[in-house]
## 1
Amino acid sequence: MSGVAVVGGQRQRLHDLGGAAGGGGGGDELKHSDGPWMRAAGGAEALHTQLGPVKSELQTAHEGVVAGTAGLEALTELGAVRESWQRRIEAARGECRSLARNLRDVARAQAETNEAVRQSFAPVAARGGGQ
């Protein structure tokens, strides 16, 4: 669907966005906002932060269990389970940190693309082809 945009629930060709006279002035229909990307990045960072103390809390909880179950064979398995969860927590924290960075990169790249497109139309606007 090259050259087709969905605006207000209706399919339109990009040249239709120029208005009835066909000369630019299509309005803000195709503008980009970095707000959703930045909010998502903030959410990913918040999750990264919230997961921070979980590893030490798990360690503290495990110490209490060890004290009450000395000599049981299940301690080895319990230790393996704890280590597995610690790895998963660290992996989730790393993924959240990476996701936040990537979401910010998308917002920045789209803003740069918007500016490049705007500048590419500047010569047409200067000749009177735009508003």
## 2
Amino acid sequence: MTELTIELVSRAEGRVVWRGSALTAQADGTPDDAPGAVAAKLAGAVMRGFPEVREGAVSVP
């Protein structure tokens, strides 16, 4: 299982103004498990939710 969390932090205030997470489980050794593929899949899923605030992580197949 891999989880990606992105936090946007206000430079002026130093506080988190938005946070999003996504997680996925991929079979080891498959093309879908390659680091670049997993990162792109999770980053896309997290940012599709921006700027909506969600509780918990989005599950990505």
## 3
Amino acid sequence: MERPLGISFISYFYIFGAIILIFTAIFFEPNADELGLVERFGIDYLPERLFRILLAVFTFIMIYGYMRLKRWGFWMMILYSIGFGFISYILTPSFNQQPFIGNVIWSGIMLIYSFSIRKSFQ
């Protein structure tokens, strides 16, 4: 089965994001942000750099399955979108910043699109 164009677009977007995560884990001061990723996920005991790299690796694995139209890739993307969407939704009233609102909207779009083409996944 041919991969839908939306899957390719989404996958390349997430690959770009994972590369940025690795780049920021290596080259930027992890404590420069007001709210780092570990605080967003509520796991303060993990170092910020390690978490960014682990999240990037998870993203690469998820995108591999999603691009190959594997059912496990589909479900990983669903869980990823729900998780990030929920965390962003919870943080939006506290920080009222555009990235959190954008993440909620993007997660919703991802869920709607992924469910609309779920029959493409094997």
## 4
Amino acid sequence: MSRICELTGRTRQVGHNVSHANNKTKRVFLPNLQNVTLLSEALEKGVRLRVSTHGLRSVEHVGGLDNWLIKTSDEKLSLKARRLKREVSKKRAVAVAA
């Protein structure tokens, strides 16, 4: 399973270990991914996603999962999150029409 945040698209970064003698060797910085259940107000259910801690803070800052999905571009989102965004959009459209 790839180490990519499903909401922010955050992935691994590459850098160097630098020794005291200034020798550089390649290393990888992995995102802090957590399996979480986020509540969707429009769908009235919990959704399990693999999200970075940075992504979790961002979702809370924006005001919840539904607001985050609507504001985020599709390029950053995973396939699962894009499908979820489509469902939320449809539910919101139905709620506005009613």
